[in-house]
Specification:
Order of helices and strands of chain A: HHHEHEHHHEHEHHHHEHEHHHEHEH
Largest sheet of chain A: 4 strands, parallel
Radius of gyration of chain A: 20 Å
Strand order of the largest sheet of chain B: 3-2-1-4-5
Distance between the termini of chain B: 15 Å
Shape of chain B: globular
Number of helices of chain A: 18
Strand content of chain A: 5-15%
Number of strands of chain B: 9
Oligomer: heterodimer
Largest sheet of chain B: 5 strands, mixed
Distance between the termini of chain A: 52 Å
Low-confidence stretches of chain A: none
Strand content of chain B: 15-25%
Largest interface: A-B, 13 and 17 residues
Chain lengths: ~425, ~260
């Protein structure tokens, strides 16, 4: 299977060995993990195994695999045409030197990551895709997609995300939804109908509701699950089968309900609670969460695309095709990505999350050279200062060279809010 | 009974021994070298300590190998500084690898802090690298004065390695070594002042700590540009170790 995907087998083996080791150190060493995490441990262990096999089998049956990088790409539409939506590899420092042949050195780690994974032939997902949907959420991605199109042999389709949320922006986005619908219909030969669309909206809503349920459980003191485990679930939500995922997540949440009832927390009740806010953390970007949770604090929420931004809003169900497309457009316009100007919604959302999850402090995380989030950290700081919530902004990439310094800053922040 | 604080920094290990009434009994300072764990253990084992706390970049070494309690250099420095200078509410700390600005409340508790990124610009290491390219001794800097400053030359590079090429280019353009050395100091001051402004510390009483506070020329530039005098202890680089010792002592008292 691997060679038919054109992967670099030796390097792929090395990557898997590395990931296995990191996973053991970071995840399996945690204490008092819920039993329901076994499923997610299994999914991650098969991230480059069974799941790919499933995708290849689905392809055999004529289903299309559609790769994405952003919460802006409407999964509902992909499912409606019987497609499979998968988040692509971008969370590790892979193929950096190759990527730098195409990209400036001062490019964010995520962009270098997805280009690097492709150039190093290490991402089975990108190889398995029939179509890759990009989006114009930042200049770096927007321009890198032109190059990505070239190196993936013309797989790219780009959706234009407006920069402002007024009427004109909404109109543009609604027409982009229409254009995407037509693209998918043409690409798969399947027409989007009231029936298949309402079914897919339901599936995605159920998935988001399960993720919301998990998030709400974390608001309890003591929190019944670690931030690392919750992040992992959020990361897996981008590539696992949505129905199975929802089922397994709800089972885990049942267990967490029990824990909450019995006051059984994963850390003690007085552990400082941190809200992480900012750039997305694609798998296996666990550096900051690992540092936070080994420095005497617990993460109780992620104000991020891999996190709350992905599941905060639902789409209204049981409507005709046109109305549902309107609703999908509205639903996605409610996402508070830093690409918008102004973006005051995000400030309100962070404030609400601090209250809801009883956070004692906010750590703003931005990937180096991720201009929208790095610049916006100023406003987040101001909002938190006004609210008198301790705040710290960090900027980093996927490398480990700043590990020591990062640990010092996080530990000092935890000492400060204790 | 005595208590110890050990600060394992990137360049030096500092050890402070304090008495039951928090007075400094002894200070030791050695090169961090290639085996900081061995040196640090020898140091702490050579005293009869009731307990000690470790801080600094290498604190976790002692946590792992000697079961030591640790605190960050930020808390340690704030504790040490506010014990020595109770009126100070802000710290500028320039060490070997890190530059920090810290603000504290009346009780010496950290309110906020900023630290440089993974980058040597503005740190002691930066000055050391530039010194090498000028073939000057660190001690020569104390003999510099602002008469040596030529505002026409400015080190602009944020990156230490780029700054080194900038220095070399200035040398080849025939500028005086003293002028270049002065510009290097101003560039370090720029970085520190931008952190200081972000934390709004100008109205506060400030203590200047860390190895770079030994550099009298840097002290004078910072004082001039901040428009106020800075509190500097003698020696200025043991305040984190001192703070760690005080916290060690407090930890014993709170258990009784």
């Amino acid at each position: 299977m691997w060679s038919s995907l054109g992967l670099n087998l030796e390097a792929h083996e090395g990557l898997l060995n590395f990931l296995g080791g990191a996973y053991k150190d970071i995840y399996l060493s945690q204490k008092n993990r819920p039993k329901g995490m076994e499923y997610f441990d299994f999914v991650i262990s098969e991230v480059h195994g069974l799941r790919i096999k499933e995708l290849m089998d689905a392809k055999e049956e004529g289903r299309k695999i559609i790769g994405t990088f952003c919460v802006y790409v409407p999964e509902e539409l992909i499912l409606a045409v019987n497609g499979i939506s998968v988040g692509l590899c971008a969370g590790a420092e892979v193929g950096t030197q190759e990527a730098e042949k195409y990209l400036p050195r001062n490019t964010c780690a995520l962009i270098k990551g997805f280009v690097g994974f492709k150039l190093a032939s290490l991402c089975p997902y990108v190889e398995a895709t029939d179509l890759i949907v990009g989006e114009t959420t930042c200049d770096g991605k927007k321009k890198a997609y032109e190059i990505f199109d070239e190196i993936t042999g013309g797989k790219l389709y780009v959706m234009e995300i407006p920069n402002r949320k007024g009427d004109e922006g909404r109109k543009l986005w609604r027409s982009e939804i229409e254009r995407f619908k037509e693209k998918l219909e043409e690409f798969t030969g399947i027409k989007i109908t009231e029936e298949n669309l309402s079914k897919s909206v339901k599936i995605v809503n159920e998935k988001r509701k399960a993720l919301q349920r998990l998030a709400t459980l974390r608001a309890t003191k003591p929190t019944p699950i670690s931030g690392l485990d919750a992040l992992l679930i959020n990361q897996i939500s981008f590539y696992d089968d949505p129905v199975r995922f929802t089922d397994m997540l709800n089972k885990l949440c049942d267990e967490l309900d029990e824990r909450v009832k019995n006051g059984n927390g994963v850390f003690s009740k007085d552990t400082p609670r941190i809200l992480v806010s900012g750039s997305p953390m694609a798998i296996p970007n666990w550096k900051l969460p690992f540092i936070i949770e080994t420095s005497g604090a617990v993460i109780v929420g992620e104000e991020a695309c891999v996190g709350e931004r992905n599941f905060r809003n639902l789409t209204e169900e049981n409507m005709g095709v046109k109305e549902t497309l309107d609703n999908i457009a509205s639903r996605y316009m409610g996402i508070d990505c830093a690409c918008f100007t102004p973006n005051d919604e995000r400030m309100t959302n962070i404030s609400d999350m601090v209250d809801k999850y009883k956070a004692d402090g906010v750590i703003h995380y931005s990937l180096q050279f991720c201009t929208p989030f790095t610049v916006e950290s100023y406003k987040v700081k101001k909002t938190m200062d006004k609210k008198e919530v301790p705040f710290m902004a960090l900027e980093t990439d996927y490398s480990m060279e700043d590990f020591g310094q990062f640990k010092t800053r996080v530990e000092a922040f935890v000492e400060m809010i204790k | 009974m005595t208590y110890g604080g050990i600060d394992i920094g990137s360049r030096y290990i500092k050890f402070v021994l304090i008495s039951e009434n928090s007075e400094i009994v002894n200070i030791e300072k050695i090169d961090t070298g290639f085996s900081p764990l061995k040196s640090a253990l020898e140091l702490v084992k050579s005293y009869d300590l009731k307990t000690y706390f470790a801080t600094g970049y290498g604190r976790h070494l002692l946590e792992i190998h000697d079961n030591a309690k640790t605190i960050t250099e930020i808390k340690a420095c704030a504790t040490g500084s506010s014990n020595l200078f109770p009126e100070c509410k802000a710290i500028i700390d320039i060490g070997g690898q890190d530059t920090k600005v810290i603000t504290m409340n009346n009780k010496g508790k950290v309110i906020n802090f900023l630290m440089n990124d993974k980058c040597a610009a503005g740190t002691g290491k930066f000055i050391e690298m530039m010194t090498n390219s000028l073939a000057m001794e660190l001690a020569d800097f104390s003999r510099l004065s602002d008469n040596d400053y030529n505002p026409k030359i400015k080190i602009n590079s944020m990156c230490a390695v780029f700054a080194e090429s900038e220095v070399i280019s200035l040398i080849t353009r025939g500028f005086d070594r003293r002028e270049i050395a002065s510009a290097i100091h101003h560039s370090v001051a720029d970085k520190v002042i931008s952190l200081a402004l972000k934390l709004d510390i100008l109205e506060k009483e400030i203590v200047f700590t860390g190895g770079c506070a030994r550099n009298k020329y840097l002290v004078s530039i910072l004082e001039e540009r901040l428009g106020k005098s800075l509190n500097v202890s003698n020696p200025p680089d043991i305040l984190s170790a001192y703070g760690a010792a005080i916290i060690a002592k407090d930890s014993c008292e709170s258990t009784f």
